[in-house]
């Protein structure tokens, strides 16, 4: 079963995807890990590679192409990135979006990156605006469109264990032959 986990920075997607992969005994591929591999391939620091990505759209396109290829080549996998649900397209069996209010996400990021909550909020807001603009420009994706997702969870409302329980119940009840009411991933321009 190919499951995608997407969401904004600080939503808990990496932690959740790793726990879900462990529970289902499948591999977990993280867009963040691929991004770090790409930086290593160019012998660049993450900071320098992030700066390059802001100037060179090919960085995002290469990352997204790799995610798309991974989705096309794997049937039993947790694929996690901001655009995983979109990049996997209709090949994904279950598409999950995780989210939390900005204040919660900013606190999580501040704790993780040892910075002030105010700084984390400002940086996260700027990053989200930049990403939304790029996704619309590159692929005609409106990142705020949740219609392609099968399950949307507010991670500030449940513990990580409860989130896992909710999703495992969804996985258990999944019927691959019942696509009625599922929004297809259409209109996306995968111009890598």
Automatic annotation (TrEMBL):
UniProt keyword list: ATP-binding, Cytoplasm, Kinase, Nucleotide-binding, Transferase
GO biological process: pyrimidine nucleotide metabolic process
Catalytic activity: CMP + ATP = CDP + ADP; dCMP + ATP = dCDP + ADP
Listed GO CC annotations: cytoplasm
InterPro entries: Cyt_kin_arch, Cytidylate_Kinase-2, Cytidylate_kinase_dom, P-loop_NTPase
Domain of life assignment: Archaea
Binding site for ATP: 7-15
E.C. numbers: 2.7.4.25
NCBIfam families according to UniProt: cyt_kin_arch
Family: Belongs to the cytidylate kinase family. Type 2 subfamily.
Protein name, per record: Cytidylate kinase
Species this protein is from: Halosimplex carlsbadense 2-9-1
Highest classification ranks of the organism: Archaea, Methanobacteriati, Methanobacteriota, Stenosarchaea group, Halobacteria
């Amino acid at each position: 079963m190919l499951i995608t986990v997407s969401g904004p920075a600080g939503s808990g997607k990496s932690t959740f995807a790793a726990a879900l992969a462990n529970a289902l005994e499948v591999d977990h591929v993280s867009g963040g890990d691929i991004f770090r591999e790409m930086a290593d391939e160019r012998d660049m620091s993450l900071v320098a590679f992030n700066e390059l990505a802001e100037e060179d759209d090919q960085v995002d396109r290469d990352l997204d192409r790799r995610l798309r290829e991974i989705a096309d080549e794997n049937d039993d996998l947790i694929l996690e990135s901001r655009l995983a649900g979109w990049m996997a397209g209709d090949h994904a069996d279950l598409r999950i979006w995780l989210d939390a209010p900005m204040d919660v996400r900013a606190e999580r990021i501040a704790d993780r990156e040892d910075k002030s909550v105010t700084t984390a909020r400002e940086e996260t807001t700027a990053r989200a605006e930049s990403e939304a603009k790029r996704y619309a420009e590159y692929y005609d994706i409106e990142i705020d469109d949740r219609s392609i997702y099968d399950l949307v969870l507010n991670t500030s409302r449940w513990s990580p264990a409860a989130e896992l329980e909710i999703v495992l119940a969804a996985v258990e009840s999944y019927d691959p032959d019942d696509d009625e009411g599922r929004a297809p991933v259409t209109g996306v321009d995968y111009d890598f």
